[in-house]
């Protein structure tokens, strides 16, 4: 008898439960029509934040902050890495390498250490030997706001895109049929 | 022995003094120079970094083990950081904020110049600061242009002059020249012999200028996906050297 009285409330509670969504789980499908747009590509933290150096010129995807140190010029390719230019003789200045650092946006140099960020990590590179540039140390998660404010957290061009899940790191974007949930101006 | 020690001490002091002099704006103790749009800068043993709402301070005395020593929460919509001696000039969407780093591990706000909402990188020296305000729809309603402030009294910067410019972005200065990037409209060169009254000398066109670094006799320019170099042995008359294509 008592159970019968409680039952409707119980059912209602179960129904209401279906309305609840965990914070951060953005359901892209609630946003209207499907369109052709960008979809995020994710990677694990370890893969996304791996930093390495590749000698030789690399095509610039989009120009970013510039930095001068001794006879070198550096330019950020937002979200992707850092172009290195040899400027010993300005009239013959040329590209010599690229630091692969996903989620990067900033650079500063002191002595033979280059400081940059990969998402929210501070990454220190030893570039005393240009043939052997390598990670020297790292301070994880220090720049909290750079994690999701990373240039790669949004697609490269304007238009609709699938809103990324913020528990993962975005390492790139591919074109796909998506719900028109997020928009980049 | 004591005498010898004091001679050493003096020699070291002189060495440091020479560092200080040659390097008001960087190159001190082997650091490089960033553009006016940078959010990272190193002074001494510290990295200072800004994001929209934070000023981060990281101790890098031992580069093998950087240590976070501060994360100040600030609601300024901060965009850029420019180091000058023992000061940080922070450009934000609501104004310029001047921090003292006399205690390097704990930057302290000592002055501010508020303006209408807009984007604004800033460059400065002992007496003057220049900032560009971009009053487009994204950045806010303030009037676009070059804003000149007297910063002799850091606690109370005063606006000296405003020069309207359509879409100014990054900027940089040497002793007598001020360079202002104006995207597709080119690079404007101002004489700042009278610091509070910049006189426009010329506009260099032909590229999309976003930011620049005057570095010794070379002007390094971020021009879209390329880097362009100009000879500024004569600071008011930059001479094109080359473009390093992206």
Brief rundown of the structure:
The complex is a heterodimer of chains A (185) and B (246). Chain A has helices at residues 2-17, 45-48; strands at 34-43, 51-55, 66-69, 72-77, 81-86, 94-101, 107-110, 113-118, 121-126, 134-139, 159-161, 169-179, 182-184.
Topology, element by element:
The complex is a heterodimer of chains A (185) and B (246).
Chain A: H1 2-17, E1 34-43, H2 45-48, E2 51-55, E3 66-69, E4 72-77, E5 81-86, E6 94-101, E7 107-110, E8 113-118, E9 121-126, E10 134-139, E11 159-161, E12 169-179, E13 182-184
Antiparallel strand pairs in A: 1-12, 2-6, 3-4, 4-5, 5-6, 7-8, 8-9, 9-10, 11-13
Chain B: H1 2-22, E1 33-34, E2 40-43, E3 46-50, E4 54-59, E5 67-73, E6 78-84, E7 87-92, E8 95-100, E9 108-114, E10 122-124, E11 128-133, E12 145-150, E13 158-164, E14 171-173, E15 177-181, E16 187-191, E17 199-204, E18 209-215, E19 218-223, E20 226-231, E21 239-244
Antiparallel strand pairs in B: 2-3, 3-4, 4-5, 6-7, 7-8, 8-9, 10-11, 11-12, 12-13, 14-15, 15-16, 16-17, 18-19, 19-20, 20-21
If you had to describe this structure to a student in words, what would you say it looks like?
- Chain A is built from 2 helices and 13 strands.
- Chain A is mostly beta strands.
- By secondary structure, chain B is mainly beta.
- Helices cover 9% and strands 47% of the residues of chain B.
- In chain B, β19 and β20 form a beta hairpin.
- In chain B, 44% of the residues are buried.
- The model of chain B is unreliable at 10-28 (pLDDT under 50).
- Chains A and B meet through β3, β7, β8 and β10 of A and β1, β2, β4, β5 and β18 of B.
